Amino acid sequence: MSDEVMTLEFDGPVAIMSNNRPEKHNAANNAMDQRLFEILEELHHREGLRAVVWRGNGPSFSSGRDMTELGVREGEISDLEFIERGHRGTQGFFTLPVPIIVALKGWVIGGSFERALLCDMRIAGSSAKMRLPEVLHGVVPDTGGTARLFQMAGHGLAADLALTGRILDAEEALRHGIVSRVVPDDALDDTVLEIAHQIARAPAFTVKMFRRTLRLLAQPEVDLSMQEEALTQSLVFASHDYREMRAARAEGREPVYRGR
Length: 260
Prior knowledge:
By secondary structure, the protein is α/β, with parallel strands linked by helices. Helix content is 50%, strand content 15%. The protein has helices at 30-44, 79-95, 110-117, 145-164, 170-175, 185-201, 204-237, 240-251; strands spanning 6-11, 14-19, 51-56, 100-104, 107-109, 121-125, 129-131, 168-169, 181-183. A hairpin with a 2-residue loop joins strand 1 (6-11) and strand 2 (14-19). Helix 2 (79-95) runs antiparallel to helix 7 (204-237), helix 3 (110-117) packs antiparallel against helix 4 and helix 4 packs across helix 7.
């Protein structure tokens, strides 16, 4: 097993990105984020690339943010600058010239779930369990996934998942159109790779033009949402209620919120 937090392999015209912290259920740390953005940049310049598969080694796609690195930053950087820097890396999902198909299994949580929502297709293994727990931690989802979830499943489900943090299983996700297929876990990788190769065999320009249509339909809402999320998350980090939540948890008491 490679020591890299994310690996990149190729199967002919298909790239395979694998989250590679299986012992942590692929919890995303700063190194994994950096490697993801590097891979996306590399794939922009890959000759003959026709599709990308994104998957996870081990039992889960990703259990979300590694809580041991929550809020850890290098150098002097404001909350807004920190969030916008992550958004710039995330733009690689939108500008990559080929489709990204995501293989979801086990835990699919938080920002990792949001990034999967930004991709072209999601195929779920039967074990997949999706969550948006950010509000329970005193923050808001800030990776663009709220807009995608709103587009796929509507206001009601987006509010339900984000405000309660409840688990969405694979079959319910299929009913809401969040994933397009559910397969047994042991067939997940083969199924997603075959879909990628099926797309790779289609006329490249035709695929590109169809994705252009989808992007023109969906992208403006996502871009607007990400701009708003950067501002609202910055306000949350500076709020009394966020500081009170953290203090109350550290002190083992009930928080007293002021709504500001």
